[in-house]
Design brief:
By secondary structure, this protein is an alpha/beta fold. The chain has nine helices and ten strands. It binds fructose -6-phosphate (F6R).
């Protein structure tokens, strides 16, 4: 089932998403979180950090798995996802650094890095909740159009569109690496719950295709329709192209409150 929650703005989306994750962390202090980078989840991470402090939650045993990493970017580069995850998630939330994993984008280990990452996720018992952003070309993780719906963690080539979109984090577009290592769509679908966030008009087309389009490798985010427990939280601008918008809002406003429902 895909639940679609439309809120006024990104701030409210962050609060709604944080509520879901805090509920999980209260129930399971050893929860395994799948972590997205990029700008979309930043407000969520800030909100989580605040809630963890206020509620004095013990998150020292929480495990994390980042979705992806650039290939060939030194780990100490400010935009390596290892660094971004440390800065925006591990430190503010107070997670234990050794429990937060990022795929190895080093050129020497590419042959084995994907398999090793899959094994590490399995050894941790699988991901309980995977946070996802959405690329304007429909990618989740860095699964670009054409990615197998059952793919595992592996090397991928970023599309020129993704490199253009991510140029804002670098000095210039040419500095954005061409290759990455990313959890596959199969990896993402094995997480027990998906939480996809998307904000702004630039994501509206990709959101509509993900939620209402056909399930197709040409729009990788449409794979979430195959997941039994996916929640999509979007702001009004990102929801603008949804055909069934009124129904999603109606369903959310009439959400059953009996115990078996979340
Ligand atoms: C990041 C990732 C990507 C981003 C997507 C959206 O780990 O896997 O799928 O979520 O590119 O990026 P932003 O949030 O910067 O628009």
């Amino acid at each position: 089932m895909t639940e679609i929650i439309v809120v006024h703005d990104a701030e409210r989306a962050a609060a709604a998403a944080a509520e879901i994750i805090i509920t999980l962390l209260r129930r399971d202090p050893e929860a395994v979180l799948g972590l997205a980078t990029g700008s979309t989840p930043l407000a969520l991470y800030a909100e989580l950090a605040a809630r963890i402090t206020t509620e004095r939650l013990d998150v020292s045993r929480v495990i994390g798995f980042a979705l992806d990493e650039y290939v060939g970017l030194p780990q100490e580069h400010p935009q390596s996802y290892r660094n971004v995850i440390t800065r925006s998630v591990v430190q503010p939330l107070g997670l234990t650094p050794a429990l937060v994993h990022v795929p190895d984008g080093g050129l020497d280990s590419l042959d084995v890095a994907g398999h090793a990452y899959e094994q590490a996720i399995l050894a941790a018992g699988g991901v309980d909740l995977q946070i996802l952003g959405l690329g304007t070309d429909g990618h989740i993780g860095f699964n670009e159009p054409g990615s197998s719906l059952n793919s595992a963690t592996r090397l991928k080539t970023l599309t020129p569109q993704t490199r253009k979109d991510n140029a804002r984090f670098f000095q210039s577009e040419s500095e954005v690496p061409i290759h990455c290592i990313t959890q596959g769509l199969g990896t993402i679908l094995r997480a027990r719950r998906l939480l996809l966030l998307a904000f702004g008009e630039s994501k509206a087309r990709a959101v509509a295709a993900a939620v209402e389009g056909p399930v197709t490798a040409s729009h990788p985010a449409s794979a979430i329709q195959l997941h039994p427990d996916a929640t999509v939280i979007v702001d009004e601008a990102a929801a603008a192209r949804l055909q069934n918008l009124a129904y999603y809002q109606y369903a959310y406003n009439n959400k059953p409150q009996w115990p078996s429902s979340r």
